[in-house]
Design goal:
Elements: E1 16-20, E2 24-29, H1 47-55, E3 60-61, E4 70-76, H2 79-91, E5 95-103, E6 109-113, E7 128-139, E8 149-158, H3 165-172, H4 186-196, E9 203-211, E10 218-222, H5 227-234, E11 251-254
Parallel strand pairs: 4-9
Antiparallel strand pairs: 1-2, 2-4, 3-4, 5-8, 5-9, 6-7, 7-8, 9-10, 10-11
């Protein structure tokens, strides 16, 4: 039986802990925070260091999220657990689901099988992302030559882990993610800033499932996308397959 420690309440610069026990810890990373130090930027705060200081022990990041992407971020709390979880990542047995709002009307579901260079340069490698459209909306705002604008709310499930994979894959479909200043469209990003007060990338690591390194049970975690993202989701009305988000806290289940 796993002895689960109660999540720590966030305070000040503390991270929102979704799940914690003696083997691992999962946090709901806010957008705008890098996972660890990188030569790509000049950031002073990082999720890895913040969690280390918050728990008072060493932590091992199991995967990464882009700075602009919010959501579930998993850490191991010892080297053996890190190796066990790393093997699952390599074997692609970890399930990760993201919520995204994209431009235009998506098909009901699909597989984006489009090779990507791992870091945007060099030889391309296989990259696959499955997606399912949860809802569509048409807004009475003109963008370009059209009198209205259309958007889709989707769940994306990457089968591989290339740099910016989901963002680049939706761009490849001509359905860029709203708020993406690198791969998106400025006109639509501005619309969401002006009409909805949304100043973030609408991509959130929503669900994560792994085999627990302690007892092997399937651990399923869920984290809400936050108030700014939820305001946009509310515009889509009641969405099939999506539980209520407003006021909802993190979810944990095991089987």
């Amino acid at each position: 039986m796993i002895d689960t420690q109660p999540p720590l309440a966030p305070s000040g610069g503390a991270l929102d802990i979704v799940y914690r026990d003696q083997w691992l810890c999962a946090v709901n990373k806010p957008c705008g925070l890098m996972v660890h130090r990188s030569n790509r930027g000049t950031d002073k705060r990082f999720a890895m260091q913040l969690l280390r200081d918050q728990l008072g022990q060493r932590v091992f990041p199991i995967h990464r999220l882009d700075r602009a992407t919010s959501g579930l971020l998993l850490f191991a709390l010892d080297a053996d657990s890190a190796a066990h979880l790393g093997e699952q990542m390599m074997a692609r047995s970890v399930t990760k689901r993201y919520l995204a709002v994209v431009r235009g009307y998506l098909d009901d579901e699909g597989l984006i099988d489009h090779p990507l260079a791992p870091d945007g340069k060099g030889p391309e490698k296989d990259a696959r992302t499955r997606y399912r459209c949860l809802a569509r909306i048409e807004l009475p705002f003109a963008v370009g030559r059209y009198a209205t604008s259309r958007y889709s709310l989707a769940v994306a499930e990457p089968e591989t882990g290339r740099m910016h994979q989901i963002r680049r894959h939706f761009k490849h479909l001509f359905h860029p993610i709203i708020g993406d200043t690198t791969y998106g469209e400025g006109r639509h990003n501005r619309l969401f800033r002006q009409h909805f007060g949304c100043h973030r990338l609408l991509l959130h690591a929503w669900q994560l499932a792994v085999d627990h390194p302690g007892d092997g049970r399937r651990l399923e975690l869920t984290a809400p996308p936050g108030e700014e993202f939820e305001r946009v989701i509310d515009r889509f009305g009641e969405v099939d397959g999506l539980p209520p988000l407003s006021g909802g806290g993190p979810g944990v289940s095991g089987r």
